[in-house]
Amino acid sequence: MEEMRRKCPICRATLPPSKEMAEKLLTLRAEKQELEADNNTYSSEYERICFFLEEAERKIGADWDGVTVLQDKNDEPAVAMPDYIDKATRRGDCS
pLDDT tens, 13-65? Predict the structure, then answer.
């Protein structure tokens, strides 16, 4: 059933995630990595993030390229930030 929602009803091609879904996935990945870096993998917060991350990854699918997202309603191209840029920004390494 989840797979059917990710397919185009006309051509049955796999649809990329929405911008919001992609941002949520990337945020959860960053939060998980931050907790792991702090060696905080036994907390309830870590378990919660892992749960939501697994759910987001299941919804988006393993075949997502990490960049392509659906366009916004205002027809401006949607942009998803690649993981390496998000990580560098969080570390303060923006050079």
Answer: 777 888 888 889 999 999 999 999 999 999 999 999 999 999 988 888 767 77
Domain encompassing residue 33: 17-91
DSSP 39-58: T--SSHHHHHHHHHHHHHHH
pTM, two decimals, is 0.61
In a domain, 1, yes or no: no
- Would you say residue 80 lies in a domain? yes
Tokens 């945020």 label which residue? 27
Coil, helix or strand at residue 14? strand
Residue 50 lies in a domain: yes
Number of domains present in the structure of the chain: 1
**CA-to-CA separations, 15 to 7, 12, 69, in angstroms, rounded:** 5, 9, 8
